[in-house]
Design goal:
By secondary structure, the protein is of the alpha/beta class. The protein has 11 helices and 13 strands. The chain has a 7-stranded parallel β-sheet with strand order 3-2-1-4-5-6-11, sandwiched between helices. Strands 7-10 form a two-stranded parallel sheet. A two-stranded parallel sheet has the order 8-13. Helix 1 links the parallel strand 1 and strand 2. It is globular, with a radius of gyration of 19 Å. Bound molecules: nicotinamide-adenine-dinucleotide. The site of nicotinamide-adenine-dinucleotide (NAD) has 30 residues, from helix 1, strand 2, helix 5 and strand 5.
């Protein structure tokens, strides 16, 4: 298949691109290497695939429809996997209009291209954050989405609804995959595991938000990628599917696991819960199991160990 991946230089996107190339697909990436974190890091993410004969990189912005039109004309993708986004719930509170543009208008631009160029399937990388303060656990796809608490989550939910518009109105098959707390090598530096590992290795204290009982359903990046690839092989008119680990880890246990993997005990700075942070995420993955054969493989501890191995090799020694 000819597959266009937006945000393909990022954490999840670059793992996905490698997997798609291994499966003999033709892959083109649209990424603007934005400065949310070090663009050199994103270039390194693509180092292994840059010279692959079935790989093509377009350094372009999803907010530039004319540029996108040229890319779609040249690359003629059969499928689109849309991952490009500003991704960080806390930062979104500082720049809500920017997040709204990239998540909303950016997604509309991609949907317009998919419609104009008769793309066979559009996969959207959504987020568990849309569940917001949902009190019922685990979170299932049919739960009402009415308690989002960050502009990031609101933007993701808006993008899901735009996806529904294009599926319903133009018959564009769309699958929205709600990723839950992805971790593993190449993780974004703003995410908690990266931050804690960095601080611990620098012998600095770590911020400890709330009472340590907030929970996150950490999901290893290869498991997420397996779910995305399975979605390519199961096309629906419109479907929302959770991709999560189904085993939430409490903040205090997450830190204890990192301490154990590193063999270092952290000094904690006690802080109140952060605005925009949800108290818990916990995926009901029965739909993913039934429709995609989704079965997460990696334990949390193994995933943290893989991250630490990558961090030591790629970041500390760079
Ligand atoms: N990492 C997680 O835990 C997680 C959880 C839920 C959902 N998601 C979603 O998955 C997707 C990938 O997340 P990630 O963690 O890999 O983030 P990332 O920041 O590493 O990757 C996003 C990529 O999108 C690119 N990008 C940003 N704005 C762009 C624009 N205007 N035009 C073109 N490219 C642009 C960035 O340069 C980056 O390479 C995002 O949509 C994110 O919201 C991530």
């Amino acid at each position: 298949m000819k597959i266009l991946v937006t945000g393909g230089a990022g954490f999840i996107g670059s793992h996905l691109v490698e997997r798609l190339l291994r499966e003999n697909h033709h892959v083109c990436v649209v990424d603007n290497f934005d400065s949310f974190y070090d663009p050199h890091r994103k270039r390194r993410n693509l180092a292994a695939v840059n010279n692959h004969p079935r790989f093509r990189l377009y350094e372009a912005d999803i907010l530039d429809p004319a540029g996108l039109r040229g890319i779609f004309t040249e690359a003629a993708p059969e499928r689109v996997i849309h991952l490009a986004a500003r991704a960080n719930a806390r930062m979104a509170l500082k720049e809500p209009a920017l997040y709204s543009r990239v998540l909303g208008e950016g997604t509309i631009n991609m949907l317009e291209m998919a419609r104009d160029f008769d793309v066979e399937q559009f996969i959207f990388g959504s987020s568990s954050s849309v569940y917001g303060l949902n009190a019922k656990v685990p979170f299932s796809e049919d739960d009402p989405i009415s308690t989002t608490i960050s502009p990031y989550a609101a933007g993701k939910r808006a993008a899901e609804l735009y996806c529904h518009v294009y599926a319903h109105t133009y018959g564009l098959p769309v699958t929205c995959l709600r990723f839950f707390n992805v971790h593993g090598p190449r993780q974004r530096p703003d995410l908690a595991i990266y931050t804690f590992v960095r601080l611990l290795l620098q012998n600095e204290p770590i911020p400890f938000y709330g009472d340590g009982t907030s929970g996150r359903d950490y999901t290893y990046v290869d498991d997420i990628v397996a779910g995305v690839v399975a979605a390519l092989h199961n096309v629906f008119p419109y479907m929302v599917i959770n991709l999560g680990g189904n085993h939430p880890v409490l903040l205090r246990d997450m830190i204890a696991t990192i301490e154990d993997v590193l063999g270092i005990t952290a000094e904690r700075i006690m802080l109140p819960p952060q605005p925009g942070d949800v108290p818990r995420t916990f995926a009901d993955i029965r739909r993913a199991e039934q429709l995609l054969g989704f079965a997460p493989q990696m334990t949390f501890r193994e995933g943290v160990a893989c991250f630490v191995e990558w961090y030591t090799r790629e970041v500390l020694s760079a």
